[in-house]
Amino acid sequence: MVIAGHDSMSSTLPWAVKYLADHQDAQQRLRKSMHAGYAKAFSEGYTPTTAEITGISIPYADAIMGEVLRFSTVVSFGSRQATRDTTVLGRRIPKGTVVIYLKNGPSFFTKGYDIDESIRSETSKQEENRIKKDTGGNEIYDPNAAPMSTFGLGPRDCFGKKLAYLEFRLLLTMIVWNFELQKCAGELSSYEGWYKTFVVPWQCYVRPNKIIR
Ligand code: HEM
């Protein structure tokens, strides 16, 4: 439980910091949407409280968290053992077979492989787009609208998913609210992963600029 809860988020945050430093437009848009969402904290010049951060959802922050979790792939594969004879995409899977699947590449990062749609099961049919409109016409981010398996799937998926999102939301807000993350030099910005229990970036240098209010 400690490893699952600690290593996972401490491996995700370095990726978040890297992506934000390398995508200044996204970082600025995220900070702006936080300023608008936590308007009282912004106008009075303090860091939003835990109650304020957890009290509302900021769609762009949800999207950033979802996309960091999808792209960083801190858990790079999943596995399941067939409890009965079955068929997946037309392939026979005998009872007892261990099936391992990757959480990156086609379907997750790029368009899925072309397959005969008639052999696809109903539950595996998904849309391409995670951005949707709510009833008021506002854009919202639905991480599960398209393939996403960062927290696993089904009844044995991650027990701590909600806690992970809570930690991520708090830490991301505090970092982006208080620091501008500047791009690092190319030779310090590798996206090579270090495969430990979870995948962490081989290089994670930061150039933070404290935001003075
Ligand atoms: C970024 C954060 C996290 C990621 C990416 C992550 C990912 C995962 C994945 C991929 C699984 C396997 C699920 C499956 O096979 O379908 C899992 C299981 C699990 N996770 Fe997490 N996790 C995270 C945070 C946490 C936290 C914060 C806790 C607890 C405090 C936690 C506790 C667990 C437990 C207990 C299981 C086993 C569930 C079971 O076997 O029924 N995880 N997690």
UniProtKB/TrEMBL annotation:
The keyword Iron-sulfur does not apply. It comes from the Eukaryota. Heme binds at residue 158. Keywords: Heme, Iron, Metal-binding, Monooxygenase, Oxidoreductase. The keyword Oxidoreductase applies. GO terms for molecular function: heme binding; iron ion binding; monooxygenase activity; oxidoreductase activity, acting on paired donors, with incorporation or reduction of molecular oxygen. SUPFAM superfamilies: Cytochrome P450. Transmembrane segments: none annotated. Gene3D superfamilies: Cytochrome P450 (1.10.630.10). InterPro entries: Cyt_P450, Cyt_P450_CS, Cyt_P450_E_grp-I, Cyt_P450_sf, Cytochrome_P450_monoxygenase. Its cofactor is heme. PANTHER family: CYTOCHROME P450 (PTHR24305), P450, PUTATIVE (EUROFUNG)-RELATED (PTHR24305:SF232). Belongs to the cytochrome P450 family. This is Cytochrome P450 monooxygenase. It comes from Hypocrea virens (strain Gv29-8 / FGSC 10586).
